[in-house]
Amino acid sequence: MLEIFMDFSFQVEHVMSSHGFVFHHGTVTEGTLKCEQVQMSVNEAHRLACARNHTATHLLNAALRKILPYTMQRSSYVGPEHLRLGFSARRILSTEQVKEIESFVKSCIEQKLKVKRLEMPFDALLDNPKAVVLRGEEYPEIVSVIAVECNRTDGELISLEPCCGTHVHNTADLLDFTVIPSKSFGGATKSLSAVTGMQVSIVRRNSEFLEKEIFQLKTEVDETLQKINVPLDAISAHLKKVKSLTKECHLSNDAPLLKLEEYKDILGEMKLKLNDVINSLSKTDANSVCSISDVPVSPSFRTSEEVLNFFHANNTSPTDDEYKYKFNKEGVIPITAGICAVIENDKITDSVECGLRCQLVLDKTNFYAEGDDQTGDEGVISC
């Protein structure tokens, strides 16, 4: 262990694990890092956003299996801003299917369902018809599972998945949910992205700006088409704007998907009307019409041998990270931890000066290390 020389503050930017040890990557922002005991403070907003999105991913998976009984999860990503789920499907989901998915997840939020972490033998998990496991994934004999329970007295499960990620304790903690655009993989693998919590309000505000612009254009187009002598220049200008807004809808990834589909339908109707007028005018003045083209529809982490040899030589035990699941009313419970190693440029060091980047390995941690397709925690380590 290292001696305490002076106060310091260490900004944790991301957390990874390797060989059972949890590595806190970040920068010394104050003082000099020469401590034996440190205070661990997790960024609560970041943790809660990831927990919301992880629980929502499980609900999204349950919704998909309800409307596509033979689908299977292929991949997932859980971060503080959004979530993404890759799944097997022959066709892209229809608008009605997306509506059904949103309705299912929002219903779970309104029902305030309990979300529990359980431990059970893997064989017992496989015997449960509600259990979802990934093909090709290796599981231990005893697995940590996340169960979302129905409010009915029969105790039916909405979702049951093996998972070591962080989750909310009740579906009501998700606050809100909406699907956003997502680029699907090729072949039979599709993907869905979504947001939860206050992020839903942000993407809805984004769509409101686009909606205002579209309906303003619709009013202008309707007024132009009511004129007896429609100027070709005005029609061409409107059509150019329609194409621009349609492209914006196709490229947008920060607005509700269902809203964007609605906007594309409105723009499509405007485009048809404007093209009809152009075709009509072209019959009387072929030289005044130019051609209009259609709008296209659209890490692994490993530590160095030197560091591992240091751990073996000092009989360093793997990091105890069970504290990442311990909460009180304020959030993740702060803890005091001992520093086992300070690593700079893949080498063990005694201290790191202010402004330099390094990694900390502690005897215990309340930070969640990146895994189960979930982003690692952020926060501050200090003494």
From TrEMBL:
Domain Alanyl-transfer RNA synthetases family profile, residue spans: 1-206
A GO MF label: ATP binding
SUPFAM superfamilies: ThrRS/AlaRS common domain
Keyword Metal-binding: no
One GO biological process term: alanyl-tRNA aminoacylation
Known EC number: 6.1.1.7
InterPro entries: Ala-tRNA-synth_IIc_core, Ala-tRNA-synth_IIc_N, Ala-tRNA_ligase, Thr/Ala-tRNA-synth_IIc_edit
Pfam assignment, any one: tRNA-synt_2c
UniProt keyword list: Aminoacyl-tRNA synthetase, ATP-binding, Ligase, Nucleotide-binding, Protein biosynthesis, RNA-binding, tRNA-binding
UniProt xrefs under PANTHER family: ALANINE--TRNA LIGASE, CYTOPLASMIC, ALANYL-TRNA SYNTHETASE
Family recorded in the similarity comment: Belongs to the class-II aminoacyl-tRNA synthetase family.
Protein name (database record): alanine--tRNA ligase
Organism: Stegodyphus mimosarum (African social velvet spider)
